[in-house]
Every structure is written in structure tokens, then in C-alpha cells.
Specification:
InterPro entries (chain B): Rab-GAP-TBC_dom, Rab-GAP_TBC_sf, TBC20/Gyp8-like
Strand order of the largest sheet of chain A: 2-3-1-4-5-6
Distance between the termini of chain B: 52 Å
Main location (chain B): membrane
GO molecular function (chain B): GTPase activator activity; small GTPase binding
Number of domains of chain B: 3
Number of strands of chain A: 6
Shape of chain A: globular
CATH class of chain A: Alpha Beta
Membrane topology (chain B): Multi-pass membrane protein
Structural class of chain A: alpha/beta
Number of helices of chain B: 22
Shape of chain B: globular
Distance between the termini of chain A: 31 Å
Bound molecules: guanosine-5'-triphosphate, magnesium ion
CATH topology of chain A: Rossmann fold
Radius of gyration of chain B: 22 Å
Radius of gyration of chain A: 17 Å
Pfam family, one (chain B): RabGAP-TBC
Oligomer: heterodimer
Chain lengths: ~230, ~400
């Protein structure tokens, strides 16, 4: 929520992968509201910043309450705003504050720090909390292990994380907000989610069936190995 | 000809400068006078902290802040070794994470090793206060408040001030849950409703989360210019613990046009309001916050909203207690009530205007009267006593 600083400010209207230069914006683009949750210091602010500003922030500060970043993308010719709600990791905030953030959420991103097993062990309580707040059961959820650039410090083995993700029927992505080569990857993760949302009928009313044609490199598939 | 104009302007400029210099000098002299009088003239110090420019320099702040918090600076206990504090401390990890990421709170030109030293001190102060007060629970953002004290008064005094502040002003944020904090955020809505119902109805749709970091860091987290932060701290330290939420309301009201022009959804409003313009007219906003406080004190807000008295009860129980015994406060309310009646029921915009055009003269005096009731727990009794001692005399001055 800090002001006057690019790191914490909202990134408005950065054009996405497929924006048509000079094209008129539609009367009103759809908004996908995605909430990003997980323990303090796992890198939620960095990941959302990476997606919205296209780079790793020089420095971040503790998120107090909730921060909000946004990016406009074009998927199959449709302009869509992806709104990322970057929440505070400290437990006390979620207990009484977080209900607000869950309002009208379209998707959830759970983040853990691959170099911190405790952040992985907290996931069940995050998932539980999310269940309590979200009325709809079929909201798309994904699991992201961050900081895979710190190879020698990894504490959460991929197979363990994969097993966990399977149990909770979520796709798993291991990534790094920091590694410059991973820019595409963080991008791909959120774009995958956006695609999923676009074709997710129950939530997105009044949309004709669509065929996802966008191609993102590297191909965003739930993975079993790190792209670092 | 042109040269003459320029030189005229120049001398006018320097005359202005010396005018402000003289004014500032006079204020400094007044502050020292209050400090040196026996007993120390705390009410006057409060007025100085509230009035234009606040306490002016960090040197003065070192002397006056302890007085505003009734902290005895004579024999400050030595700080325990940091190592001990950090062992088996449940908060250490979170504090460490937050302090490490707090680089932006330190002056830009500061050498790294000096900053790192201060960060270590910051951790120790926080852990020390938490250890001595197990009822207090650390929250992310607490470090933004503590760093302000550390930078202004140094670690030893900062520890004493922060401890006092935490068990009084900040305690509502430091319960095991943030329920009380949430209720204080509701005050924001109550205040805005009183002043401008239209803005209230708009904000009611989007919630008050945008003000959370303002409130629990006393704006330390969101203002990048340290001078503005300390100016606000002068003000808040001299006033009722709920003043930060009044100030938050004033910021929203100040930007009401932008707010109303915004799309009425949580994201747009959140985005707009979280970007606090760095060039806010702080002095006039402080005056407005004070005026609104006088006109709609917390007790009145709660009554009007028929809210459970539990709201932030711990913080202003002392306040209520004190104000019952305090004539000036009652008199003030009466005055405003009469005034309001006289002016008929003004709504919204007009009502704001009526607040803002109240005579300036006595505002700081009134606020200082209110400030006296700041909840200071054990010290409250003494405070009230001293308030009663000077109040009758004082009252004559306010209401001739
Ligand atoms: N090496 C590495 N460090 C990272 C990466 N992502 C984040 N970090 C670092 O991890 C720390 C925490 O990042 P944040 O994004 O502030 O964490 P957060 O999850 O937002 O934390 P809270 O706001 O407290 O909930 C920072 O010091 C980052 O520089 C990454 O991919 N690789
Ligand atoms: Mg964060």
C-alpha cells in the first residue's frame, strides 16, 4: 500500500502479449480478479510485480493488508483486465481482514517458498481458509512454488509438492520471480490462469464458447521440473 | 526599471523569509519556555505540537515527545543484549523479515553499515517491548512506527516511548486478532458520514481496507517524505489515540472529487486512495482533522451510530472517563451543538464548509484540551488531575 514508488504501485494498462496497437479499447473489458495468498516472505509481492511490471522489484516491503496490481491483456482478441490482489502473509491479517479480499474472487494462487519448508507446511491452512471464504467450489486454483533460482537451498522437493498438488487437484508450477530468464514463465503461469478463467463458464456469464488460440512460450503446463 | 522590480521582489522575498524565521524562532522560544517552566507546561507543548509546523526540529522532538507521552527520561533502563532477546522468540522471524525489507524508511544517503546498525537496533527495540508486554502481538507495520521513533530519538529513548505508545495508542492493533482494528476502521465510515454522506455512501460499497496501513502505521508506511511523517507524529502524539482515523477521513474527504469520479468498486477506489499524493497540504488537513474531531468526537460518533460500546473500548475508556470530569470538553460540545442548531441542518458539502470555517483562534486550544484526555492508563489519573488544575483557568481564556 505504499505510495510514490513503482514497486508497490499499481501497474495500469500494460499491454499484454497480444494487444493490438492502436486498437480501440472495448467499451468495458472483463475483469479477472485473482487473489494471491501464502506465508510472509514467499514472494507474493515479487510475483505479482513481475507479472504486472515485467521485472523483479528492486526491493519490496512487507505488505500491510492488501496491495493491488493490475494488467491489461488481450486473449483471443478480447481485452481483459487481470487484477492481482497481493495479500499480507502474516496470520493475524487474514483472521479478520481477509474476508474482504475474497469478495468476487475468480481464482486463487497459493504460493510457497521452495527454500522454506515451513511455508509449504502452511498450505493446508491456507487452503482451508480459502474454502471457508469462497462460496463456489469450482473456482480455479493453482499452486506456485517460488524461488527456484536458489537451487542449493531448495527444501521442498518437487515430487512432494506434486503429490500435494494432486491431492488437492491443483496444477503445480515451480518458478522464480527473480531469475530474469523466468519472465516468460511467471507470465505464462498467470496467462494460463487467465485462459482457464476465460473458458470457465460458470463464472463468466454471457460469453460465447471460445477456442484458446494464444500461444505462450514456454508452453505453460503444470510441471515436474524447474525452468530455471 | 526591471532591475528595480527585481530588487524589490528580492527584498520582499527576504522580508518574507525573515518574517517566517522570526515566527519560527518565536515558536521555538515558546516551546523551550514551556519545557523549562516548573511544572512543565504540557498542555502548551500539546498545542505547539498541533499548531502549524508542529515541533519543528528533531532536537525539540527528543525533548517534547517524552513529555507528550508522560515518559520519564531521567533514568532510562539500559537495553538488554540483543542476543538473548532473539533466542526462542516467537516474533523474531517475522520482525526480521519486515525490518530487512524496510530499507525505504531510512534516509536515502545513509551508508549501508550505518543503516544496518540501525536495523539491528530496530529489531531489538521491537523484541524488547514485545517481551516485556506479552499481551501485545506484533503486526506487520508496527516496525514502520518504531523506525520513526528510532530515527528521531535514538534507541534508548525510542524503546521507552514505543513501549508507552504500544500499551496505549497502539494496543487496539496488538490484540491477538485484528477485530478491534477493524472496528476502528469503521470509525472512518462514521466520520465521513457525518461530514459528507455522499462520499460515505460511495465508500460504504468498497470497504475501508485501503486505510488499514494508514491507520496501523500512523502513515509511516505510505508517506515517502520523512518530514511529513514526523510532522504527523507530532500531531498524533498530542491528540486522542483515534486522531489518525480522523486524519484518514480528512484525506478521503480532501480527495472526494476524485473518489466520486472513480468507478464504484473496491479495486478502483483502493487503487486511487492508496496512492497518497506526496504534496498533500498537511497543515490544513491537520487543522481540518482537528476541527472534525472537536465537532464529532468519538463518543458522539458511537452514540449516533448506536454502536456497541465495545468498539475500541480499551483505548478510550480512559478518554470517556476523563472527559466526564472535564468541563472544557463538555462546554465545547455544547457550543457546537448550539452552533449546529443555529445553522440549521446543513448537509454534506455545506456541513463540511461549516466545519472548515470555524474560527481558527481557539482550535488548537480546544484540541489540546482534548489531547489531555489521551489514554495513558496508569498515568491517566495524574493527567486528568493536572487537566483539572489548569482547566478552569484555561477555560476562561477559551470562553471569555
Ligand atoms: N532468490 C529469490 N528471491 C526472491 C524471489 N521472490 C522473492 N524473493 C525475495 O523474497 C523476499 C520476500 O518477497 P516478497 O515478495 O516481499 O514476499 P511476500 O510474500 O510478499 O511477503 P509478505 O508481504 O510479508 O506477505 C524478498 O526479499 C524478495 O527479494 C525469487 O524468485 N528468488
Ligand atoms: Mg508482500
Amino acid at each position: 500500500m505504499a505510495a510514490g514508488d513503482a514497486e508497490s504501485s499499481l501497474e495500469l494498462s500494460l499491454t499484454g502479449s497480444g494487444a493490438l496497437p492502436g486498437a480501440l479499447p472495448p467499451a468495458r473489458s472483463r475483469i479477472f480478479k485473482i487473489i494471491v495468498i501464502g506465508d510472509s516472505n514467499v514472494g507474493k509481492t515479487c510475483l505479482t510485480y513481475r507479472f504486472c511490471a515485467g521485472r523483479f522489484p528492486q526491493r519490496t516491503e512487507a505488505t500491510i493488508g492488501v496491495d493491488f496490481r493490475e494488467r491489461a491483456v488481450t486473449i483471443d482478441g478480447e481485452h481483459i483486465k487481470i487484477q492481482l490482489w497481493d495479500t499480507a502473509g502474516q496470520e493475524r491479517f487474514r483472521k479478520s481482514m481477509v474476508q474482504h479480499y475474497y469478495r468476487n474472487v475468480h481464482a486463487v494462487v497459493f504460493v510457497y517458498d521452495m527454500t522454506n519448508i515451513a511455508s509449504f507446511h502452511s498450505l493446508p491452512s491456507w487452503i482451508e481458509e480459502c474454502k471457508q471464504h469462497l462460496l463456489a467450489n469450482d473456482i480455479p486454483r493453482i499452486l506456485v512454488g517460488n524461488k527456484c533460482d536458489l537451487r542449493s537451498a531448495i527444501q521442498v522437493p518437487t515430487d512432494l509438492a506434486q503429490k500435494f498438488a494432486d491431492t488437492h487437484s491443483m496444477p503445480l508450477f515451480e518458478t522464480s520471480a527473480k531469475n530474469p530468464n523466468d519472465n516468460d514463465h511467471v507470465e505464462a503461469i498467470f496467462m494460463t490462469l487467465a485462459h482457464k478463467l476465460k473458458s470457465h463458464k460458470p463464472l463468466m456469464l454471457s460469453q460465447p464458447p471460445d477456442h484458446d488460440e494464444i500461444h505462450i512460450k514456454p508452453e505453460p503446463k503444470p510441471i515436474t521440473s524447474c525452468w530455471c | 526599471m526591471w532591475c528595480e522590480v527585481v530588487s524589490l521582489l528580492r527584498s520582499l522575498g527576504s522580508a518574507l523569509v525573515s518574517y517566517f524565521d522570526a515566527k519560527k524562532k518565536r515558536k521555538v522560544a515558546e516551546i523551550y519556555q514551556a519545557l523549562n517552566s516548573d511544572p512543565i507546561d504540557v498542555p502548551k507543548l500539546r498545542r505547539m505540537a498541533i499548531s502549524k509546523g508542529g515541533l519543528l526540529t528533531d532536537e525539540i522532538r527528543c525533548k517534547v515527545w517524552p513529555k507528550l507521552l508522560s515518559v520519564n527520561t531521567d533514568n532510562l533502563p539500559p537495553l538488554p543484549a540483543g542476543k538473548e532477546l532473539r533466542q526462542d522468540n516467537k516474533d523474531y522471524q517475522q520482525v526480521l523479515l519486515d525490518v530487512r525489507r524496510s530499507l525505504r524508511r531510512f534516509p536515502p544517503g545513509m551508508p549501508d553499515d550505518q543503516r544496518e546498525g540501525l536495523q539491528e537496533e530496530l529489531i531489538d527495540i521491537i523484541l524488547h517491548v514485545l517481551k516485556r508486554n506479552p499481551q501485545l502481538h506484533y503486526y506487520q507495520g508496527y516496525h514502520d512506527i518504531v523506525v520513526t521513533f528510532l530515527l528521531v530519538v535514538g534507541d534508548r529513548l525510542a524503546t521507552a516511548l514505543v513501549e508507552k505508545l504500544s500499551v496505549h495508542h497502539l494496543r487496539d492493533f496488538m490484540y491477538p486478532t485484528m477485530d478491534n482494528t477493524k472496528q476502528i476502521l469503521n470509525y472512518l465510515m462514521l466520520i465521513i458520514d457525518q461530514v459528507n454522506p455522499e462520499v460515505h455512501d460511495f465508500i460504504a460499497e468498497v470497504g475501508t481496507i485501503f486505510a488499514l496501513s494508514w491507520l496501523i502505521t500512523w502513515f509511516g508506511h505510505v508517506l515517502s517524505d520523512f518530514r511529513h511523517v514526523v510532522r504527523l507524529y507530532d500531531f498524533f502524539l498530542a491528540c486522542h489515540p483515534l486522531m489518525p482515523i480522523y486524519f484518514a477521513a480528512v484525506i478521503v474527504l480532501h480527495r472526494k472529487q476524485e473518489v466520486l469520479d472513480c468507478e464504484c468498486d473496491m479495486a478502483s477506489v483502493h487503487h486511487l486512495l492508496c496512492q497518497i499524493p506526496q504534496d498533500l497540504p498537511y497543515e490544513s488537513l491537520i487543522s481540518k482533522a482537528g476541527e472534525i474531531f472537536v465537532q464529532f468526537p468519538p463518543s458522539k460518533l458511537t452514540k449516533e451510530a448506536a454502536q456497541a460500546e465495545r468498539t475500541a473500548a480499551s483505548t478510550f475508556k480512559d478518554f470517556e472517563l476523563a472527559s466526564v470530569q472535564q468541563r472544557p470538553d463538555t462546554v465545547l460540545r455544547q457550543r457546537f451543538r448550539e452552533r449546529m442548531r443555529g445553522e440549521e441542518r446543513l448537509r454534506g458539502e455545506e456541513r463540511t464548509k461549516s466545519i472548515l470555517t470555524k474560527p481558527r483562534t481557539n482550535r488548537f486550544v480546544k484540541l489540546a484540551v482534548m489531547g489531555l484526555t489521551v489514554a495513558l492508563g496508569a498515568a491517566a489519573l495524574a493527567m486528568v488531575k493536572s487537566a483539572l488544575e489548569w482547566a478552569p483557568k484555561f477555560q476562561l481564556q477559551i470562553f471569555p
